[in-house]
Design goal:
Layout lengths: L4 H7 L28 E3 L5 E5 L9 E2 L6 E2 L4 E4 L8 E2 L4 E10 L5 E9 L22 H10 L12 H4 L10 E6 L8 H8 L1 H15 L3 E7 L3 H14 L4 E5 L8 H9 L14 E5 H13 L5 E7 L7 E6 L4 H7 L7 E6 L6 E2 L13 E6 H4 L12 H5 L6 H9 L3 H6 L10 H5 L6 H13 L1
The structure holds iron/sulfur cluster (2 copies).
Length: about 450
């Protein structure tokens, strides 16, 4: 299929009016996009790559290579363990040294394939030319199959296999695709750089996802603190007549939460415990759109991703294109080394990222950032008693009452926790950020959720 110009031009109207946002809660942390001006730099593979077999939601993949075997970059090394699972490919060429557990960022040991890097010999079937392939496949099933074969997962952090999201359950229809390019977490800039440097490829990826879903509309939601990315995508859409619409969003956290983004862009409310597809919407991250382009148009599996390496005391603020399996310590070294005043290292953003205790852990498909937080900011302040100010209630984007959930969790009142929708907590941390008594609200709520699940 060739892209339909007339429809596309209609959809590409750039709305200069009010910025859109979600209707309940939210906070305005400093965005600290320190690495925004740093172009993506490619980190050549060297040493070893450690590739976990369980990098996604669903069944772990099963290794299909053995110790001593030679592999090429892009070769399948582990097969999806079911429909809700994802293939895994060699991010480097070389020799398989071991198939054994390796330590992740939390120090937990997980099954992995360890490859010694030898040169960088890619599979011949992968198109590595810089040419942009604009013609889309005519058959939507081909798009979904290629995305599944390439092991694409949601790069917004959830790592949900993309081919599953593109196959709504019987009786559900996704008429709207929303590409999440909000990048609302402070410090993160890798999606921003993707839009500036691979904008057209990501937009073609969005068209592929739209076609796979048979969606009638597709929006790209971008926060207004990325005006250059908004202008760039808008320009490409108009020039090429792509049937996509950029929606400018107010800078507000957690604008990129699925339910918040749907509210902001199309004013539909996902019901409690519901999924976006329940209101006819599917959300995909802008990085996932780029990965879909590479999978379908270039036969390239998901073997590398863009990662922000940042922190207020870091010598260099950088965005890196790194192969999956790269040790985090290499990324830190590229940015000038771990600052002496580091109090906490986080994989991801400061609000929803995960603490790193093992800097030798490898990157995974969904590593988006490595953040170094100075000791003075990482230290938790001593908690005092709740002063019933309701700031946590005002900040909660899910309309929950965090102070109440904490009380119920502390008292082990599981039935009441359920009745007060503890499951709806998206663990965004807005309540924690707002609490003047420094009560570790999110820790208690997480504990409550776990206990309710038994
Ligand atoms: S972490 Fe949960 S309870 Fe706290 S603000 Fe976010 S959604 Fe609400
Ligand atoms: S923000 Fe903190 S102090 Fe205020 S009501 Fe909530 S838990 Fe209590």
């Amino acid at each position: 299929m060739i892209i339909n110009n007339s429809h596309a031009n209609r959809c590409a109207v750039f709305r200069k009016g009010r910025l859109r946002t979600f209707t309940v809660g939210g906070i305005h942390p400093d965005d600290n996009k320190l690495a925004a001006g740093s172009p993506l730099q490619t980190l050549p593979p060297e040493g070893t790559a450690t590739v976990f077999l369980d990098q996604h939601i669903g069944a772990p993949a099963a290794a299909v290579v053995s110790k001593g075997e030679r592999v090429k970059t892009g070769q399948l090394i582990a097969k999806a363990g079911g429909f809700v699972s994802a293939n895994i490919h060699a991010p480097v060429s070389g020799t398989v040294l071991a198939i054994e557990p390796a330590a992740d960022i939390a120090g937990r040991r997980q099954p992995a394939v360890v490859i010694r890097v030898e040169g960088d010999e890619w599979l011949e079937t992968i198109d590595r030319s810089p040419d942009i392939v604009r013609e889309l496949p005519t058959d939507s099933t081909v798009i979904i199959r290629k995305i599944a074969d390439a092991g694409i997962v949601g790069l917004g952090g959830a790592a949900f296999p993309t081919h599953v999201k593109l196959s709504p359950p019987a009786g559900k229809k996704a008429e709207i695709l929303i590409i999440n390019a909000a990048e609302c977490e402070p410090f993160l800039t890798s999606d921003h750089r993707v839009m500036l440097e691979f904008g057209e490829q990501a937009l073609i990826g969005a068209l592929l996802l739209k076609k796979a879903l048979h969606a009638s509309k597709a929006f790209i939601g971008i926060e207004s603190n990325k005006p250059d990315a908004i202008r760039r995508l808008q320009h490409i859409i108009q020039e090429n007549g792509y049937g996509l619409q950029v929606v400018r969003l107010k800078k507000r956290y957690p604008q990129g939460g699925e339910k918040q983004l749907i509210d902001a862009v199309v004013r539909r409310q996902v019901p409690s415990m519901g999924l976006p597809v329940d209101v006819g919407v599917v959300i995909q991250n802008i990085g996932t759109a780029l990965a879909a382009y590479e999978a379908v148009q270039k036969n390239k599996p998901l073997i590398e991703n863009s990662i922000t390496v940042t922190g207020k005391s870091l010598p260099r603020q950088i965005n890196v294109l790194a192969r999956v399996g790269t040790p985090l310590s290499k990324l830190a070294a590229l940015a000038g080394g771990v600052p002496g005043d580091t109090g906490k290292i986080v994989c991801g953003g400061p609000m929803m990222g995960k603490a790193v205790v093992n800097l030798e852990a490898p990157t995974t498909k969904v590593t988006s950032a490595l953040l170094f937080i100075p000791f003075r900011e990482a230290r938790r302040k001593e908690a005092s008693n709740c002063i019933r100010c309701a700031k946590c209630v005002k900040a909660c984007p899910m309309g929950l009452e965090p102070y109440l959930l904490v009380k119920l969790a502390q008292r082990g009142m599981h039935g009441e926790l359920k009745a007060n929708r503890v499951y709806d907590c998206i663990e965004c941390g807005c309540c924690l950020y707002s609490c003047p008594a420094y009560i570790p609200l999110l820790d208690y709520i997480r504990m409550g959720k776990l206990r309710v699940r038994g």
